[in-house]
Amino acid sequence: MAAPSNRPLIERAAALLKPHKTADGRVFGDVAAAVVSETGRIFDGVCVDTASWGLCAERSAIAAMVTAGEYRIASVVAVWRDATTGKLHVLPPCGHCRQFMRDLDDANLATTIVLGSDMVRTLAELLPEHAWPAAIE
Ligand SMILES: [Zn+2]
């Protein structure tokens, strides 16, 4: 039996894509994320990349989840559509987002990170050597 496809969650995130170009040439909303909490609720977010601060789509969606009082993430996906080719890409979370998810709750090390239609990894796999180290002496 084939593993369940990630396509429904990918398509949900893709539906959020609404790139908005600012006067200074920045683009908001060209990356979108969908986060499934441990209770099964889905939270959406888009990237907001300003000159003063950049917020990834994943952290935007996770902030909505935290606002709703949830901290454990079952799965997460982020997508971007190439405006030139029209093709949709699933993006791996950046290092900041990986650490953010881990810091939110240790249980998130088991979070399923969607990396493609049929490809996933756990956060722990994407964040090796995350444990506080033992003393060296
Ligand atoms: Zn990020």
TrEMBL record:
PROSITE patterns: CYT_DCMP_DEAMINASES_1, CYT_DCMP_DEAMINASES_2. Keywords: Hydrolase, Metal-binding, Zinc. InterPro entries: APOBEC/CMP_deaminase_Zn-bd, CMP_dCMP_dom, Cyt/Deoxycyt_deaminase, Cytidine_deaminase-like. Signal peptide: none annotated. The keyword Metal-binding applies. Residues 4-134 form the CMP/dCMP-type deaminase domain. Pfam families: dCMP_cyt_deam_1. The lineage of its organism: Bacteria, Pseudomonadati, Pseudomonadota, Alphaproteobacteria, Hyphomicrobiales. Belongs to the cytidine and deoxycytidylate deaminase family. This is CMP/dCMP-type deaminase domain-containing protein. Gene3D superfamilies: Cytidine Deaminase, domain 2. Transmembrane segments: none annotated. It comes from Devosia oryziradicis. It comes from the Bacteria.
